[in-house]
């Protein structure tokens, strides 16, 4: 039987890397990174990448493959990850895909959304219209979408109008067709969503953040600060450490801001993965540190 990828998802600090390592050993598998920032080399501490020791136990792929001055997005990640997964399967091994970057995983498992990309010229034209005018147009061309979205949110309304003008097909119809195809794909997917008690998760986040700052994260950012891509600058910890290096905040403030941002991110991750109903929620009280 041809091996199929297995996905291990969940919030930051939930123990995904440890679970992936255990399964890779048990299933003769190889680990594939699905964390947007662990793709970058030279930022292993601030991104909590697996240790060299762990990476020596089983093959790990897509860790440290990009320079910090490179940008990346979900589509580029998909183009990097799919050939790696195909090669692992061709060798009779099981790909264990693990990470917490929901959009990157979505592009990998379901493919990109069929909705057209934004058009700067058209957006400038739409920006010249009032929200009321945009809502009226949307109600005429795509009443289903107008009924579903928050029409007080100009960005949502403008995007829906833009989609129709670019493609001639209502956004609601395109999304419905994609969801149908996605459902078919989900029948072939398998994976878990790690869930641990919120107090324990917060405790682990605080410990990880403190460990990062005490064991090289500041030096990492200092070494790359003049050539960090826009993608890298979005990594939690990077803007806070840059402010620390610039003297805008002190060390303890930096730590607390990173902890706060990481907790907020973990909550968003949990919300995202709960919507991915093909993932099996898996309670885990004692993930390895």
Detailed description of the structure:
With 289 residues, this protein is of the alpha/beta class. The protein folds into 2 domains: 6-111 and 188-283, Rossmann fold; 120-184, Orthogonal Bundle (Histone, subunit A). Helices cover 54% and strands 9% of the residues. It has 13 helices and 6 strands. It has helices spanning 16-27, 52-57, 74-90, 102-110, 120-127, 131-141, 143-148, 154-167, 171-186, 198-214, 217-224, 238-245, 251-275, and strands at residues 6-9, 29-33, 60-61, 94-98, 191-195, 280-283. The chain has a 6-stranded parallel sheet, sandwiched between helices. It starts with 5 loop residues before the first strand and ends in a 6-residue tail after the last strand. 34% of the residues are buried. The model has no long low-confidence stretch (mean pLDDT 92).
For the terminal residues, how far apart are their CA atoms?
Answer: 35 Å
Global outline: globular
Give me the count of strands: 6
Secondary structure tally, helices: 13
Q: Report the order of strands and helices.
A: EHEHEHEHHHHHHEHHHHE
Tell me the number of structural domains: 2
- In the CATH scheme, the class of the largest domain would be Alpha Beta
Radius of gyration, rounded?
Answer: 21 Å
* Strand portion: 5-15%
Largest sheet features: 6 strands, parallel
CATH superfamily of the largest domain: P-loop containing nucleotide triphosphate hydrolases
Mean pLDDT: 92
Q: Structural class from helices and strands?
A: alpha/beta
In the CATH hierarchy, the architecture of the largest domain is 3-Layer(aba) Sandwich
**Which parts are unreliable, with pLDDT below 50 for 5 consecutive residues or more?**
none
